Amino acid sequence: MAEAAEWAPNGQTFVTGSLDKQSSLHIWNLNGENLHTWSDSTRVQDLALSPDGQRLVTMNRERQITVYNFVTWEEEYSLRLKTDLTCITISRDSKYMLINMVDNELQLIDLTSAEIVRRFLGQKQGEFVIRSTFAGADENLIISGSEDGRVYIWHKENGTLIETLDGHSPGCVNAVSWNPADPCMFASGGDDKKVRMYVQTTVPPNGSKGYKYN
Fold first, then answer.
1. Residues 100 and 106: beta-carbon distance below 8 Å
2. How far apart are CA 46 and CA 39, in angstroms?
3. 41 near 19, Cβ under 8 Å?
4. CA angle at residue 156 from 155 to 160, to 5 degrees?
5. Distance CA 143, CA 145 (A)
6. Does 208 have pLDDT greater than 70?
7. Helices (H) and strands (E) in the chain, counts
8. Per DSSP, what are the bridge partners of residue 196?
9. Per-residue pLDDT tens for 44-62?
10. How many CA atoms lie within 13 A of 14 on its CB side?
């Protein structure tokens, strides 16, 4: 059973990841033919493809991130982090990956150098899968769900927490998604079985973005 799947940017192939260690990472074409299997891969919990089609990033249950060259299908490098991981997102410019970790932290990692660029703190995550994403017109924001029923927004360049929004309670905010056509709108989904749409209001004097949900 697949845990994660994503289309390649060309729309002609897609990648699936599974917790089955014997057959965990595959590339398929539109006819359902298996084009490649990574025999050395471990149990894949999540994966992401860079928008430029150059890299595939996977995450496993052993706290490891592996980066593959998606053109040659060869492994470029792997990282083992200090705590359990829940999701991967890659920036639109294919320069960074954003990692959610269960110790209440998000990490922004340079895809080329594998160096940690910035940490984002404040949201609550310790037990469940919580997802995050890049946000804003130039992806200058980071947004994440949280186990406390709130949505957290940071400035990407300095890590400052600029907004904490209520919206899903009781329970977790499991996922967030920014509207690619409207930089002032995003959606969130939570344990309250609701999807909320947030829009930016007039920026108040304290510098807050002033988002509210409908």
1. yes
2. 17
3. no
4. 40
5. 7
6. no
7. 0, 20
8. 188
9. 989 999 999 999 999 988 8
10. 11
The reply to whether omega before 180 is within 30° of 0 (cis) is no
At 148, the amino acid letter reads D
Dist CA 182 CA 186 (whole Å): 8
Q: How far is Cα 100 from Cα 58, in angstroms, rounded to an integer?
A: 13
Alpha-carbon span 64 to 200, nearest angstrom: 37
Cβ pair 34, 14 in contact under 8 A = no
Reported as half-sphere exposure (CB side, CA atoms, 13 A), residue 205 has a value of 0
Round to whole Å and give the CA distance between 119 and 159.
7
What's the whole-model pTM score?
A: 0.88
**Alpha-carbon gap, residue 214 to 205, rounded angstroms:** 23
In the block, which residue shows the tokens 């690619």?
180
Alpha-carbon distance of 29 to 27, in angstroms, equals 7
DSSP 23-87: S-EEEEETT--EEEE-TT---EEEEEE-TTSSEEEEEETTSEEEEEETTT--EEEEEE-SS-EEE
* Mean pLDDT value across residues 108-125: 94
CA distance 119 to 140: 14
